[in-house]
Design a protein that fits this description.
With about 350 residues, the protein is α/β, with parallel strands linked by helices. It contains 8 helices and 13 strands. Helix 2 (about 65-80) crosses helix 3 and helix 5 (about 235-255) crosses helix 6 (about 275-285).
Length: about 350
């Protein structure tokens, strides 16, 4: 028995923020000193590295659990199921509900419980809980659904990834341009045919790597040092991802018994275009193969990095034919992969 995704949905906020909207920001170095060059240069360099030109921010009246609810509704409708038959709601996020204009995280009750309430699921045996696993959280949720279903603890799970990173960024940190908001959700069920998950890989590196992503004070020394924002050691993360993600992907593929040449698409966390391209190049180099054309669909250019939401959103857009020059067909082999805070890495091979 395998598990497969029988329904998929995403919510992309309407508010579009372009790179040019950061033209008047006061970007500072970590020590609080100003950059020695204008914002136009910062933005141009940012675009060339990350590939991001636009990103989406949640509407002021909506929180992460609201975005998740909208995505979940679409996934449930896409699967054509009765929500009362869902056994588990697994909600991956990092910062809970952060109301617009505040910095305080709200996770009581759990965001999964809030989504269950919004969906008006009465069944008390539908268990709802959150997971904190960095950007790979949605994939990890799918792996947990796999375990529940294979063990007989569940028949059907709703796995959600939702985040409003725009509300936890330091506007004086140029890395703030990377982050965005969004949500993706999937219905995961048992599969008795050839489709579904074929293998998986998951790992946490928590020695030197544990604090590559962290909560830290603003780069503006005039702001309250006790107010914290998402921070990262970009160079360390890049090196870690390049050295470890391709190996995890290779191990996952070997477990599946699928040949590298049979992989049709790689759906990787939309973190940074240059980093993702380097990971794919290293992955194929490990197999002594050139990188196939159009192997890696991307949505980061228009949507930015919405953490746990990027992979399910990418999958949803791909299935609906909304990514230019990209499509998948029944029976195609897909490789999902992600890397993020922890540092965590995971992947799974999937027959569509």
């Amino acid at each position: 028995m395998k598990i497969k995704i029988t329904g998929i949905g995403s919510y992309i906020p309407e508010k579009k923020v372009s790179n040019t909207d950061f033209g008047d920001h006061v970007f500072l170095n970590e020590d609080g000193t100003p950059f020695g060059y204008p914002n136009e240069v910062v933005i141009k360099k940012f675009k060339s590295i990350t590939g991001i030109e636009h990103r989406r921010y949640a509407e002021n009246n909506l929180n992460s659990s609201d975005l998740a609810f909208f995505a979940s509704q679409k996934a449930i409708e896409n699967a054509g199921i009765d929500p009362e038959t869902i056994d588990y709601i697994i909600f991956a996020h990092n910062f809970g509900d952060v109301k617009c204009g505040t910095t305080q995280s709200d996770m009581l009750p759990s965001l999964a419980t809030r989504v269950k309430n919004k969906l008006q699921i009465k069944n008390p045996k539908c268990v709802a809980y959150d997971i904190l696993f960095g950007c790979p959280g949605w994939i990890e949720g799918v792996l947990q659904a796999n375990a529940f279903i294979k063990s007989g603890m569940a028949n059907r799970c709703l796995v959600i990834g939702s985040e409003t990173l725009s509300r936890v960024v330091d506007e004086h940190d140029r890395d703030s341009m990377i982050y965005s908001d969004g949500a993706g959700a999937a219905i995961v069920e048992a599969s008795d045919d050839e489709t579904g998950m074929l293998s998986y890989e998951s790992a946490t590196y928590a020695m030197d790597e544990a604090n590559y992503l962290f909560f830290g004070k603003s780069y503006n020394p005039d702001l309250d040092p006790d107010t914290r924002y998402i921070k990262m050691n970009g160079r360390k993360i890049y090196e870690f991802a390049l050295n470890n993600v391709p190996i995890a992907m290779k191990s996952c593929l070997e477990k599946s018994g699928i040949a590298i040449d049979d992989v049709k698409k790689i759906l990787i966390h939309q973190a940074n275009e240059k980093m993702d391209e380097a990971i794919i190049q290293r992955f194929y180099k490990l197999h002594d193969r050139p990188v196939p054309q159009d192997i890696m669909p991307m949505c980061i250019h228009e949507l930015g990095n919405s953490s746990v939401a990027t992979v399910p959103t990418l999958f949803d857009l791909l299935i609906r034919g909304e990514i230019k020059d990209q499509k998948i067909n029944k029976g195609d082999i897909l490789l999902f992969a992600s890397v993020g805070a922890g540092m965590n890495i995971n992947a799974f091979v999937y027959r569509y």
